[in-house]
Design brief:
7-stranded parallel beta sheet, 26 strands, 31% helix, alpha/beta, 20% strand
Length: 615
């Protein structure tokens, strides 16, 4: 009772502004003001007390904050160059680290950002420590609409603009794990470098407005920023542990495989045999149905243990004891050859024997829910993780080189080409990210799989697809890879307007979402020069990239060859090469998929093109 009427001690409010500095003309009118400068000059980081703004951005931000609240202490940290708004990420991290160790502030306003950065994890750790100490970072998103940092961190208030907000004091919470607040960022009057009034706009101003609103709430209610956030209805969705995503689960499931049998021996399974040395498990048996005509055929396989032959056995002679996993390919067509075969019953029996199943087709069987949850049954389907999609259409920018493998039609060996290049990159010590579009991708250790070929399910709209693929690429880039490889399905451009199957809608969406830096185009002997030229033109005009080589599938089309020799000989290849080079009007080297020395040459071409980007 003695202390019942004692007033709560008034707390001071300190705001740190990390920007281009503040003009001394403005700073001298602020009661409590100080500043420092962190810059890089001639490869050295310079720390000094010259906070003078030369470009005006930081001055406008400081004035905008103070238009909401005045009873605060301001400290400006100048981090941009003298000429423009370029931000050195290494310098930015040094500033945050310095503040975390040497300053005690309530709010840090960062109306600046970086997008694709290999320093992202290091920056997050510092921002998380600041959050745990009670210092709130309020940061702006990129004005072009990209995901940017530190705004997108879960421990930072990320602010973007909204056209619906017309008043400086208005805002509305978003409360997403990436975007927290919308505030006014559309055209408005701001204070310039020398106190003049001019027009500005962007997320940086929206960020400054919310910092001012938040600081004003803190001062008026005599409370720290975290409590003021609650009062304003804004939430930080900070997670202690990252949830296991679909790709991590898939790789963990496949990582448990030791000995596997494959069934049936169709197109999708050929790559498992051809590139068995890239698998982390051993193929012990190959099965097929009797009426396939393949039973008894001996298959050469080269894996980590050497070369051997495996005879294809009748599925009726299935041996459950020699394997722990069954890799089941597409089985719908098998029922046409053998009406007694039922895929669900077959897989169900395998599961009851307590064996793992990796199925290229998914099955909606309620009784298998426990098998799916445990990973005993796994099917690589596109699983949209809505929590990874950033609001307002924001996409990740990527600074890891991406090599795309696209084609002019289906069944050209595009996946085989990806495996050949990946094999060479791995042998040379590169860390290779792989976004597979074949359902067998996880078996080869792919970082992620976007299976949109045969039987691939895509139960969400085109914009969600772009965001989903973009987030997959970002996840791969965060694994510190040197290069990312991915490939399209079937043709790249529309080749038949008489039927919807001839429209390359899925392929175009994938190309746009992937945004490769370089493309290798798979072609066929029957492709016309004009069709190849048009495909190259569409790729290069749709995405900021270059087609750096063509790879010819080694066989002619069986239907068009009318029983003639399918293999393309040296003379035919020379004629095709001259014809294509003349038709496309440009010197692009053509390689043959079956010639290892030519793929070696293509590999060197890839390294030369990317240069230091892969180092």
């Amino acid at each position: 009772m003695l202390f019942h009427n004692r007033k709560k001690e008034k707390r001071g409010m300190k705001i740190i502004i990390i920007d281009s500095g503040v003009s001394s003309e403005i700073a001298r009118n602020i009661d409590r003001f100080s500043g420092m400068c962190f810059q890089r000059q001639e490869e050295k980081k310079i720390v000094e007390h010259n906070y003078e703004d030369r470009i005006g951005h930081g001055t406008s931000i400081c004035s905008t904050i103070l238009s909401h609240v005045d009873d605060v202490e301001i400290k400006a940290f100048k981090v941009t160059s003298e000429e423009d708004e370029y931000i050195d990420c290494d310098v930015l991290i040094s500033v945050l680290d310095y503040i975390e160790k040497n300053e005690k502030a309530d709010i840090i306003n960062m109306s600046i950002c970086v997008c694709a950065t290999k320093y992202k994890k290091e920056m997050y750790k510092i921002c998380r420590r600041l959050y745990e100490k009670g210092t709130l970072v309020v940061a702006a998103f990129d004005n072009d609409g990209a995901v940017s940092y530190p705004a997108a961190f879960d421990c930072v208030i990320g602010v973007t603009t909204s056209a619906m907000i017309g008043n400086n004091k208005e805002f509305f919470p978003v409360n997403n794990r990436y975007v927290n607040v919308c505030a006014k960022g559309k055209a408005q009057r701001i204070v310039g470098l020398h106190g003049e009034i001019k027009i500005g706009m962007g997320d940086s101003l929206a960020c400054a407005h919310f910092t001012g609103i938040l600081a004003d709430c803190c001062v008026k209610n005599n409370m720290p920023p975290m409590e003021a956030l609650d009062l304003l209805g804004v939430k930080l969705l900070v997670k202690d542990n990252e949830e296991e995503n679909y790709d991590h689960k898939a790789r963990n499931v496949v990582g448990q495989y030791k000995k596997a049998a494959i069934f049936p021996y169709n197109k999708e399974m050929h790559s498992l045999i051809r590139y068995a040395a890239l698998l982390n498990f051993r193929i012990e048996a190959i099965y097929d149905i009797r009426r396939s005509g393949r039973v008894g055929k001996k298959i050469d396989i080269i894996d980590a243990e050497g070369s051997r032959k495996i005879a294809i056995k009748n599925i009726d002679q299935l041996n459950y004891d020699i394997v722990d996993t069954f890799i089941i390919g597409h089985t719908q067509e098998l029922s046409m050859l053998d009406s007694s075969f039922e895929g669900k019953l077959f897989i169900n029996k395998i599961l009851q024997y307590n064996k793992n199943v990796y199925s290229l087709d998914d099955y909606n069987v309620e009784e298998w829910s426990l098998y799916k949850t445990s990973g005993q049954f796994f099917s690589p389907q596109i699983t949209l993780n809505t929590s990874k999609i950033v609001p307002f259409g924001k996409l990740y920018k990527n600074d890891i080189p991406i090599l795309g493998i696209f084609g002019t039609r289906s069944k050209q060996g595009k996946w085989s080409l990806q495996m050949e290049l990946r094999k060479r990159l791995l042998a040379d010590g590169y860390v290779v990210g792989l976004l597979g579009t074949e359902p067998t991708a996880y078996l080869f250790g792919a970082n992620s799989c976007y299976h949109f070929g045969y039987n691939g399910k895509r139960d969400f709209d085109d914009y969600q697809r772009v965001s989903h693929i973009n987030s997959l690429i970002n996840d791969i880039a965060e694994e510190n890879v040197d290069i990312i490889i991915s490939g399209g399905q079937s043709q790249t451009i529309t080749n038949n307007i008489s039927n919807i199957d001839g429209y390359a809608i899925d392929q175009y969406i994938f190309l746009q979402a992937l945004q490769p830096d370089a493309v290798i185009l798979s072609v066929c002997y029957e492709d016309s020069g004009r069709y190849i030229r048009d495909t190259i033109s569409v790729i290069e005009s749709s995405v900021d990239c270059k087609v750096i080589g063509l790879v010819l599938f080694p066989e002619k089309d069986a239907f068009r060859s009318e029983g003639k020799e399918l293999k393309i000989d040296d003379e035919e290849f020379a004629e095709f090469r001259n014809y294509v080079e003349s038709a496309i009007g440009r010197n692009i080297k053509i390689y043959r998929l079956q010639c290892s020395w030519e793929i070696d040459d293509l590999y060197e071409n890839v390294l030369d093109y990317f240069g230091d980007d892969c180092e």
